[in-house]
Specification:
- By secondary structure, the chain is of the alpha/beta class.
- It has two domains: about 190 residues, 3-Layer(bba) Sandwich (FAD/NAD(P)-binding domain); about 150 residues, D-Amino Acid Oxidase, Chain A, domain 2 (2-Layer Sandwich).
- It is built from eleven helices and 19 strands.
- The strands form four sheets. An eight-stranded mixed beta sheet has the order 5-6-4-14-15-16-13-17. Strands 8-2-1-12-19-18 form a six-stranded mixed beta sheet, with helices on one face. Strands 9-10-11 form a three-stranded antiparallel beta sheet, with no helix packed on it.
- Strand 18 and strand 19 form a beta hairpin.
- The longest helix is centred in the first third of the chain and has 19 residues.
- Bound molecules: flavin-adenine dinucleotide.
- The site of flavin-adenine dinucleotide has 39 residues, from helix 2, helix 3, strand 13 and strand 17.
- The site of flavin-adenine dinucleotide (FAD) has 39 residues, from helix 2, helix 3, strand 13 and strand 17.
Length: about 425
């Protein structure tokens, strides 16, 4: 892998940057592999990288129906945090946030990782009770979530002029999570792709998987793609909101529902918010990018669907919520809006699991899974390589739905 550094940047400038080697190599598709990973998003690429790096499994094909980083990894609002409620979740997300902090160096790719702090604005007493529980549980595991006074919130976020004593929902409390961060979504996909490719992993774009294939004995045989059948003893599904469309092809029913989740971006403005602001009671969160745009997110659409777009009702509620707290933002122009399909399990926690079809593995239920890409990839690679769940994700298997050991997590926004 060609090393990216100040030296290589200067050296390549003498040849007008014409001699950089490609970030990843294109290959002809083979008939069979040791492992097929379906989905060239964050989780699929990270899994391929950790399988090759940690377990020496390099005969891997990552099959992506579109282009790398065209799915939710590029559609999300890049909020990275470990402020979760359950003892099963917190250590996993702490690990992921820690891994992100060292990932630019590890992948030799600038992810523009920026630790910002996340401030939760609380406006109702039920939410205050919930976050207080969160604070105590997180404290046990070493993740920080500390109360912050309303005046301190207003000092740190001067544009937050709404939510006063006479408003519909006055701000009553707040929490600060210093580990909260943002980074550059494309770079995460490209960084993992480049590092995996340098270890021998094959990445095949424009290779849609139409269905999964089983042997007569019920084990996995491989996949049927737009370019023909490809075989492997181990097939890993990492297709985000489209998991059930693939698993349905072998009659495997999963406890997942797919929803459209949307986000909006404003015109770029001067730096004014240097934290991630989250308002769970109103259902809106936002941060400001290095370019100056505000990235704004809200709740998923109320009904299930595979559409990718913006539901007018969700749009109005989210923007309305933002204006309640930040009235001056009414002058901002919104530049873009988009949606992505996320799948959500009944307990809103992820599924990293072997399935009832031997050799078929899934990583799914990632409706807030950008922050989980490093640890998700690491632990999924461990499962595929050893057929044993990783210590951090042993509670996230499909078995919990048989024993009703749900890991109930409230979302960032209130409606899930
Ligand atoms: C608007 C929005 C905001 C979000 N905000 C946040 C946030 O702030 N923080 C956070 O942690 N998470 C957030 N998320 C969730 C996060 O984006 C996802 O959980 C995470 O990106 C999913 O993992 P992934 O990167 O592997 O998915 P993807 O990037 O979607 O990867 C899946 C890939 O599979 C491919 N694929 C699908 N079907 C097939 C097929 N049949 N054959 C081959 N390839 C296929 C897709 O093209 C896609 O590239 C957000 C999501 C959305 C939509």
């Amino acid at each position: 892998m060609q090393k990216y550094s100040l030296y290589s940047l200067v050296r390549n400038s003498f040849t007008r940057h014409r001699n950089w080697s490609p970030a990843w190599i294109n290959h002809d598709l083979k008939k069979s592999y040791d492992v097929i990973i379906i989905g060239g998003g964050g989780h699929g690429l990270a899994t391929a990288y950790y399988l090759a790096k940690g377990y020496g499994v390099t005969n891997i094909a990552v099959l992506e129906r579109g282009w790398l980083g065209g799915g939710n990894v590029a559609r999300n609002t890049v909020t990275i945090r470990s402020n979760y409620l359950r003892q099963e979740s917190i250590p996993f997300f702490i690990k992921s946030v820690e891994m992100y902090e060292g990932l630019s160096n590890e992948l030799n790719f600038n992810l523009m990782h920026s630790r910002r702090s996340m401030i939760d604005i609380i406006q109702t007493y039920p939410k205050l009770r919930e976050i207080t529980r969160k604070m105590y549980t997180m404290d046990i595991f070493g993740s920080t979530y500390k109360p912050i006074s309303v005046s301190e919130i207003r000092r740190r976020i001067p544009t937050l002029t709404g939510g006063g004593k006479d408003s519909r929902l006055p701000i009553i409390a707040g929490m600060v999570h210093p580990e909260g961060a943002v980074n550059r979504h494309d770079a995460v996909a490209w960084g993992y792709a480049r590092a995996a490719s340098s270890l021998g992993v094959e990445i095949h774009q424009n290779t849609k998987v139409n269905s999964l294939l089983k042997n007569d004995d019920g084990t996995i045989r491989g996949v049927s793609t737009v370019k023909g059948e490809i075989w492997a003893d181990r097939v890993a599904v990492a297709v985000s909101g489209h998991t059930t469309q693939l698993t349905d092809t072998v009659g495997l029913r999963l406890p997942l529902r797919s929803f459209n989740l949307s986000a909006f971006v404003s015109e770029p403005v001067k730096p004014m918010i240097d934290v991630v602001v989250n308002c769970p009671d109103l259902g809106v969160y936002l941060s400001q990018t290095a370019k100056g745009e505000l990235v704004i997110g809200g709740a998923p659409d109320p009904g299930q669907s595979f559409r990718r777009g913006t539901n007018q009702l969700v749009f109005e509620r989210t923007v309305g919520a933002m204006l309640e707290l930040f009235p001056s933002f009414k002058k901002l122009k919104l530049l873009r809006q988009w949606g992505g399909t996320v799948d959500i399990a009944p307990d809103a926690s992820p599924i990293i699991s072997e399935t009832e079809i031997p050799g078929l593995y899934i990583t799914a239920g990632w409706w807030g899974g950008y922050k989980a890409i490093p640890a998700g990839g690491l632990t999924f690679a461990n499962l595929i390589a050893t057929n044993t769940p990783h210590q951090l994700t042993k509670s996230f298997t499909l078995d919990r739905f048989k024993t009703l050991d749900y890991i109930l997590e409230p979302g960032t926004t209130t409606r899930v």
